[in-house]
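Priority: low. Protein: mannan endo-1,4-beta-mannosidase. Input follows.
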Amino acid sequence: MARRHAVLGVLMLAVIVYFNWGGGGGFQPPSQLLPPSWWPFQPKLPDLAFLRRNGTRFVSSDTGDDVYVNGWNSYWLMSEAATGRAGRVEEMLRRGRAMGLFVCRTWAFSDGGGSGALQISPGRLDFRVFQALDYVIYEARRNQIRLILCLVNDLNAFGGKAQYVKWAESAGVNTSSMEDPFFAHPIIKGYYKDYVKAILTRKNSFSGVRYSDEPAIFAWELMNEPRCVSNASASLLQAWITEMAAYVKSMDQNHLVTVGLEGFYGSKRSDRLGTNPGVWAASLGSDFIQNSAIDHIDFASAHAYPDTWIPKASLEEKVKYLSKWVDSHLSDGENVLKKPILFTEIGSRLREKLGGMYDRDLLLKTVYDKIYKSAKKKQAGQEP
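Result:
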């Protein structure tokens, strides 16, 4: 889904806001990325505990204590570091930490032959861009920030699943008989697995720590907003998630895994179809409950874009819809899935004020209030 406006993501134990700092203020980013072995001194990285899931809670692997998280989305960190603006990355992470935030969701992919692509073609990775991702993770660790790293896009931005299909077709693979070749064709699934393996086994050129052993990584997100419109029953996407989540876990037992869902209910979920923003949402080949219930998926996720999903609705109708949407997913996380539920993207246009409050603020407040209420009861949604 196209995103033109700031987003707010609310985690079951957290809040994620969207930052897009424009730099400036005389800040001069470094012209190139230099591993610490080239530096005159090497600062000791702070110790961080891995985070685990205990039922519907996130907990510290060291103490077992509940972990309450708040953070933000900055998808562009690797791209900025790869194009000579590493200082913007450092400043963003520093500012986030100064505000008391410590989880950042960002892209760990850029597919295709364009400038800044990490994966130029299947199995061919750009060392310079990989080093930029190293830098992002290193700086996150240095600032005690944990990252949710997304591995591919359903959308065409930064290559996405369409780029994988193009690679296969360019190699002579016949995909015409497939419902959705990205999710179905074994060669394309192999491309994705090879990429995931390259990421998980990567040894950071700044810290010397393998990604699979890096506590600054909060979780792996299999795909941003997966949809499979050619298979509305969700069975094809379900099989892909099951296979890929197990594959990630086979190489990395240290980190949490999530899907990256928008949170729509599938066509067979008759008791919840009224929670969807429209009839169209049930035809996208995903199902929040079915997809999130997979054993190797540690927590569920949902997005919300009321301005885009129900564009003709009044503000009052959007508030009512968003309230129902959040309640339904919190309840499903608590009572059905028995897993954490993260609202990782919520977006609304910054429009006219209503009684001194922007429309967007009212919509976001609706989500916050739901999270706070749930947190006080130590239920699915919490906010420190």
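The mean pLDDT is 88. Residues 307 and 348 are 6 Å apart (CA to CA).
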